[in-house]
What we know:
alpha+beta
Amino acid sequence: MVTKIVMPKLSLTMKEGTVGKWYKKEGEAVEKSEPIVEIISEKATYDLEAPSSGILRKILVKEGVDASVNAVLAVITFPDEAFSETEILAEVPQAVEETEKRVLASPSAKRLAREYEIDLSLVKGSGPEGRIVKEDVRRFMEEVRGTLPKIKEIIALTGFKKTSAERVSASFRTAPHSTIMMEVDISKAGGLHEKLQVSYTTILIEVVAKALLEHPIINSTLDGNQIKIFEDVNVGLAVATEYGLVVPVIHNADRKSLKEIDTAIKELTEKARQGKLAKEELTGGTFTVTNLGMYGVEFFTPIINPPEAAILGVGKITEKPVVVDGKVEVKPIIMLSLSYDHRIVDGAPAAGFLLKVKEKIENIKA
């Protein structure tokens, strides 16, 4: 039986992924459910399992190549089974750049050529079998169009970085952003931090989860002409990794204790940095928290993580003079920045939610 290995859809917004590494070569035996290919999705590296046992008969999408969701990546067959490559190739979506046989070139080379309107048939390739790579296009540009600035390093905009760039652009194009900010006294939160040995981010996520229950419009999404309010409160936490920004999700954060949230954050952050997050740990988010305080940032305007309605930015702790009962006292202060989709949320309910977060933090019991 001919079994197709296809590019999985790992999130609601995923349109394409990148083939990272094939764990088997053509002609090798595979067992059902064993990892067969590494997929670099929008947020993590994911090992795709073999859908059946047999022989890896044909790899259609090579390592490092982008493919659209549901594109056929390879075919598994029985050892002596008849197999028509032509029929399978006919089903591969045109968005898979490797199937563009007119000119053998890498996806990055094609993108650069399109950007500068260069005819790839004029470029000499230096890759395997004359394949044109990005550096070949740059060299051609230098020879034909004059000297370009010298390149020190090239960072491929693929995988996490590519999808992150696409999502940020899509978010800003489609969702009219508005941002409000509030200063918050975290004196009492600091006491809880010391007493229970949990992070400030843990405390913030617990507070945010409870505030979302009281302000459900913030815990929603826009679907066509309908605003859909989520029943679940799943808080995503933006994590910087060497692969790019990822947002693992703490599911049902409103039902978890501080210790449970703290443990979840530690586990998800470690997995994110190793690129080992599972599909379910990356999907289903309803609200996102992003903390740049550890980088010395006091306040910023975060960009909404689509398809969510809002995102909370957290700045660093700063000692500031505050007037309390007519006296000046020095208090530890953080700045919270709430960016929200103005199609869904107006200024007043957004301010009400942020004020609720502020009140809960400032009155938290140690």
